[in-house]
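Sorry to interrupt, but I need a hand with the structure work. It will help me judge whether the discrete encoding reads sensibly. Write everything out right here, beneath this request:
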Amino acid sequence: MCRVSELKSIYDIMTAEKNMDKKNAIFLNKVLPKFPSVFHEWFLTTFLSPTKWYMARVAYCRTSAVISMVGYILGLGDRHGENILYDATNGDCVHVDFNCLFNKGEKFDCPERVPFRLTHNMVKAMGALGYEGVFRKSCEHTMKVMRSQKESLLSVLNTFLYDPLVEWKKDTKRSATNSSSEAMRILRNIDNRLRGITKHSMIKNTVLSIEGQVHHLIQEATDIDNLCQMYIGWAAYL
């Protein structure tokens, strides 16, 4: 309980701080040291033979990459620790709770700022190369497949335009026209992501290659400026 209250006090100070350099310093020097990387040890204790350990780690990297890229395209948020599970038989990464889709997380009181979860704990478990090895190549292959099947993916998503169960806006007084225009805006954003267009201010409206887009997303997901502004319950320190 003392650790939780201490962490909350640190986060309260960090949230109130306006200077980004000071936010970063608090996150790096006060928060992260309390939560060293331990996830890689789970693979060592769960998969005892070298072959099983290696195959489980590869499966972890590949499945994490696939859900990261698919989640980015669909705007999947709320990826805190309780919504990401790992199969103890083969190392697969399994996500649950897909309620926060279409970048809904960006409209939270504390907006989400990362395209997917890729914290220091996850990176350490990927091995000596971190995200530069199997994870990056799997991200690129996944993005390549989705780009090649862009029309099929969009045709499936277009059905959401006419689904009465999908709430595009929280406003209960929204009209059908406004709801439809919001749906069209979201689908245009998905189309842009599939074409490699990012909303980042420095490279806005620039069509990135598959490798360039994956690189940009990984940089965003691991950027301390983004992680230190995430909601405490998302646990960017784990």
Summary: Residues 27-145+216-234 form a domain with the Phosphatidylinositol 3-kinase Catalytic Subunit; Chain A, Domain 5 fold (CATH 1.10.1070.11). The chain has a mean pLDDT of 90. The first strand starts at residue 84 and ends at 86. The longest helix spans residues 50-74.
